Amino acid sequence: MTYTDKELLAIFNQDSSAGIELIFKQYYETLCLTAVRITRDLSLAEDIVQEVLFELYKKAADLNIESIIGYLKRSVYNRSLNKLKSQRGFVDTDDINYELGDNESNSQEQMEYNELVAYLHKVIDSLPKKCRLVFVLNRFEQLSYKEVAAKMEISVKTVENQMSKALRILREEMINFKNAEKMNSSDRGILL
Question: Which residues contact 166 (CB under 8 A, 6 or more apart)?
Fold first, then answer.
């Protein structure tokens, strides 16, 4: 059985143990997909989701949230980024991902991916406040334009305009990022 966010929150508020079990069953896979898109490591993604759900359970009495999936996705997203940041430059030989092995090109690809993710988050954080909030609510909390408009008390047309603006800025920044990467790789070629 699938529950709405309101139903899950009501169950969770009445009985946090039963609520967390239902939340786990309903959202675990979705949250793992969110984490694995960022970390590119299923085991790490599963750990992150379990940590977030455990934190939710521990904070049951103190929480006042409207969208459980929005809250959880944002928490997983933030924790995934924090894990990536904390792991940069640190390699524990006992925890080497055997899928990647010692292949330098895969390590290079992973490093480039991590740089891209960090760059995108920096760009998202630098968006104008209303634009950033609309983008985050729609893309990370998966609210519809209508839900975003209601939550922010603005018109759907304003949401559409702000999303267009955010996507335009992100596209422009991606082009800048790709051009900078091309210049960096051509500079490396000259040095070799």
Answer: 124, 127, 131, 132, 134, 135
Place of tokens 């519809």: 144
What is the DSSP secondary-structure string of 98-149? TTTTT-HHHHHHHHHHHHHHHHHHHHHHHS-HHHHHHHHHHHTS---HHHHH
Q: What is the pLDDT of residues 22-71, one digit of tens each?
A: 998 888 888 988 888 878 788 888 999 999 999 888 887 777 787 888 88
Fold of 103-192: Arc Repressor Mutant, subunit A (1.10.10)
Q: CA angle, 40 as apex, 38 and 46 as ends, to 5°?
A: 85
Q: Which of 48, 50, 54 is nearest to 84 (CA)?
A: 48
- Domain boundaries 1-90, corresponding CATH code: 1.10.1740.10
Residues 114 and 120: their CA atoms lie apart, in Å, by 10
Angle between helix 68-87 and 104-126 (nearest 10): 130
- Contact assessment for residue 104 and residue 35, using Cβ atoms and an 8 Å cutoff: no
Question: Cα separation of 4 and 2, whole Å?
Answer: 7
